[in-house]
Amino acid sequence: MLPRELKNRLNSIGERGEPWSTPQNAFQLLEKSPSFHTRGEFTGTPEAEGNRMANKDMPKDMYFLVKIMFFILGLGTLLPWNFFITAFVYFQSRLVTGNTTVGSSPDRNGTRVHTDEYNFNNWMTLLAQLPLLLFTLLNSFLYQWISDRTRIVGSLIGILALFILTAVLVKVEMSPQSFFSVTMVTIWFINSFGAVLQGSLFGLLGLLPHNYSSLFLSGQGMAGTFAAVAMLLSLASGADIQTSALGYFITPCVGIFISILCYLALPHLEFACYYLNRTSAQSYELEKRAELLLPDEKNGMPNGVLDFKEKSRPVKELRKASVVTVLRKIWLPALCIVLTFTATLSMFPAITANVRSAANVKQRWNDFFSPVCCFLIFSVLDWLGRSTTSYVLWPGKDSKLLLPLLVSLRFVFVPLFMLCNIPEPDRQYLPVFFKQDAWFIIFMTIFSFTNGYFVSLTMCLAPKNVLPHESKTTGVLMTFFLALGLSCGAGLSFLFKALL
Predict the structure, then answer these.
(1) Domain ranges in the chain?
(2) Is the dihedral of CA 125, 76, 456, 192 positive or negative?
(3) Cα–Cα distance between 291 and 329 in angstroms, integer?
(4) Is the model's pTM score more than 0.85?
(5) Which residue, of 50, 183, 400, 494, is most buried by count of CB atoms within 10 Å of its CB?
(6) CATH topology of domain 62-99+116-277+318-499
(7) Predicted pLDDT of residue 303
């Protein structure tokens, strides 16, 4: 039976004697109508209808300002994580008391060598990712009670305050134990704010075209490059470690402040308002019309008979996105992002930061080896991988086997990195098989690029599987699975380090 709305339209444009009682005849008659094309009430496919709705009176992103702002916001979300993991030289120096390094042991010449008794990189990674997991889950409830503006601006201000505190602590003398405790607490809270911020922004990105998600993720990738370059400039300046660290931690304060300004400017841009404020009337109208054209999902036929049954569900029920329903649609991208980050965080930075150069060169290169070959290469290639999805999305959303297979293949990097040149006492059981620097650089290049590409790919594919009113729920859920993968990887890093 045809819905009343469609019957009225057909009666107004066709002769009463025409046989329009079947969906096929109805659409043939509709196609003859000028209003069918000028008003675009029904266009034959949900995709075409969505494109028409998006293009009708749609404002332009003048000077790409909204793109630039979301790129900067992406940068701001991962500045805390990247600036803390890249500053390993500073943190190791603060775990020294007098002339003795905590956990140090004499080498063959009787001098002292560093051992990571605190397991600083492991604990830092774990305490950065656990709050990300917990507060991302909490954010799935917060968004119903606290506005996007309050969550995003409040989180950015909290991150800014904690970065200022970290910069101040550079000049404060503390025992290694106290410094370690304060740093871990700071990492916990700064990443808690980051989790709320990231989940809220991903929810907004679900309302925008998919290339804005790619740019946001590219901004996140650039955060690592930004931190690595800042660290290299600090090392190259020749200043003492306190002065270098002070300048290093002031830098992200500027970046976070600019991120706050960018978010506050969004409501004043017509393009941003058009997308971010259309979650009620326009989204519902689009879905209501698209329902007339959806394939018969009950029998799984991609080109099945059109369902013209009249919908009796109220508007409120249609707008409410069921978590279970969304999960059924996005389970594959969710699984892939968990696997991607589990493989990445199990190795980086807990294992990879311990790899040392085997080249017989001056000590100066040894100081730069890890910042360049571990952190800078990872950051640049990760960013390139994320940016690639602006041009290529392969495998596509219909890939049920190839995508998880490619993602799972990244676990081959676990034994490869563990067999690289990690010196004693960090290595106790495994031999060094890939001693040359070139092996580590090749592994890091592929490892980093694939991480960025698959993260961005899965985050872009997930919203393509859901309806417009489910976009925010999709963004929050994908952020939760992202955090789950990070936490699993951080936990596994303890196991893999113990196996060294």
Answers:
(1) 1-35, 62-99+116-277+318-499
(2) positive
(3) 17
(4) no
(5) 183
(6) Growth Hormone; Chain: A; (1.20.1250)
(7) 38
